[in-house]
Amino acid sequence: MPFHDIAGQEDAKRLLQNALRKDTVSHAYLFTGPSGSGQLKTATLFAQAIFCTELQDDACGHCLECRKVEHGNHPDLTLLKPDGASIKIDQIRDLQRVFSYRSEGINPKVYIIDGADRMTVQAANSLLKFLEEPPSPAVGILISDNSRSLLPTIQSRTQRIPFSPLHPDFMLQALSSEGIPVPLARCAVSLTSGLDGCRELLEQNWFAEMRNLVLQLAKESLSKSSSSVATVGQKLFKTGLGEHLDVLFSMFHLWFKDMLHFLYQKHESIVFIDQLDFISRHARERSTEQWVAYMGYAAESSMKLRSNANTQLCLEQFLIRLES
C-alpha cells in the first residue's frame, strides 16, 4: 500500500517520505495525535517503505520485503502493544533481546510500539536506554494519543510526527462511498478522530444496537417513563452491551447536543439526523440550561466509569437523573 492510500495526514507523509528520499531516517519517531487517525497504518507503511527493494521513498507492495510486511511475518519488524492495561518491562526486555541479533537484510530493524504512553515506569526507563544505545541499527516508532504522559527524556530522543483529526465531512464522504448508512456513519464520525477508528467501530456488531438502545432510552426519558431504568440493566448486561457503556454515555452526550443544535438552528451539525422530526418536536421541552446539564451528567458518568465505578449502578444513576 503506497503513502497516497493513507487518508489525509499530508504533513506526516511529507516528513516521512522526505526522510526516505534523503536517506535521513531517524533512529526513533513519535507519532502523536488523536486515536484512530491512522498512526499504526502509517507506521507499518513507513516500515514497509524502509524495507522495500523497488522504491526509495514509498512501498511498492509487490517485492518480497513488502509482501512479508503485509502478511505480518517480516523477521525485522516487531510490533508491541499493551499486555492488558499496560506495556510491561518484560515486553521491552524481549524487544531488546530480539534486537541483539543482526538484521536479516541490509536495512535497519524496525519496531513499532502502539500505545507507548501506556508503558509502566520500569518499561519506559528500560526503553530509554534502548533508544540511546540500540544493539544493532534500528528505527523505532512510538505511537501515542497522549504523548504528554511519556517521559520527557523519551520525547526529546524521538522526532515528533504530528497527526491531526480528519475533517468530518471528508470521513462521511469516504464512509458513504463504502456503503455505510448515513445515520451510523455520522454517529461513528462524531465518536472517533479518523477513518480507521470509524471503520473499527462500525465493524462491531453491537454498535448499531447500542445506537438504537440510546435512542429508545432518550425518548423514554423525555416521557418520564420509569420503566426504562428497570428494564435497561437487564437488556444491556444480558446482551453484552454493558461492556461498552463509555460509548453509550458518549452517544447520549451527542443526543443532548443535537437538541441544542436544533434550538440554535444548526441543523447541519445534528448527528442523529434521521431523528430530526422527533428532535424538532421535543427540543423545546427542556431549556438550554437543562440540555447542558444533561450533557454534564453524561460526561460525569463517563468519568465514573474510568474510575472503575460499578457499571450497572453508574447507568442507573444516570437514567434516574434524566427522569427526575
What does this structure look like?
The protein is built from 15 helices and five strands. The chain has two domains: 3-162, Rossmann fold (3-Layer(aba) Sandwich), CATH 3.40.50.300; 204-323, Zinc Finger, Delta Prime, domain 3, CATH 1.20.272.10. It is of the alpha/beta class and 324 residues long. The N and C termini lie far apart (54 Å).
Task: Set down the secondary structure blueprint.
Layout: H1 10-22, E1 28-32, H2 39-51, H3 64-70, E2 77-80, H4 89-98, E3 109-114, H5 121-132, E4 138-144, H6 152-156, E5 159-162, H7 168-177, H8 182-191, H9 195-202, H10 205-222, H11 227-239, H12 245-263, H13 276-282, H14 288-306, H15 311-323
Parallel strand pairs: 1-4, 1-5, 2-3, 3-4
List the domain count as a whole number.
2
CATH architecture of the largest domain: 3-Layer(aba) Sandwich
Percentage of residues in strands: 5-15%
Helix and strand pattern? HEHHEHEHEHEHHHHHHHHH
Contiguous low-pLDDT stretches (5 residues minimum) are none
Based on helices, strands and strand pairing, what is the structural class?
alpha/beta
Average pLDDT metric: 88
The level of helicity is 40-55%
CATH class of the largest domain: Alpha Beta
Main sheet attributes: strand count, strand direction, barrel closure: 5 strands, parallel
Q: Treating each run of at least 4 consecutive H or I residues as one helix, how many helices?
A: 15
Number of strands: 5
Shape: elongated
Q: What name does the CATH topology of the largest domain carry?
A: Rossmann fold
Pfam family, one: DNA_pol3_delta2
InterPro entries: DNA_pol_HolB, DNA_Rep/Repair_Clamp_Loader, P-loop_NTPase
Organism: Paenibacillus donghaensis
Protein name: DNA polymerase III subunit delta
